[in-house]
What we know:
2 domains
Amino acid sequence: MTEAAKKTIPTRKGRSLEDEIARQETKLKRLHSDLKEKKRRDQERNARAISTLLQSEGLDQVPVETWQQRLPELRTLLLGTANAEASASPDQSPGNG
Length: 97
């Protein structure tokens, strides 16, 4: 190309740093929103699956009081934490019975 032809080709205006930062911040907000929505959908899907499992095993017929009494044991079994024992009410902790 000749010098005259190069001068007539329009070039793209460069972005300023502020414009680029604003664009990236907008993108980051959208990604955070997408992640939050994905976590919400995953939690809902998990809750439905657990509900279906409990129903299929007939455990949805167990009274809520029984669930409340056995919840610390279930938490320990499912999560493997010693915190379940600490969160039990004093009348349910070992040694008080």
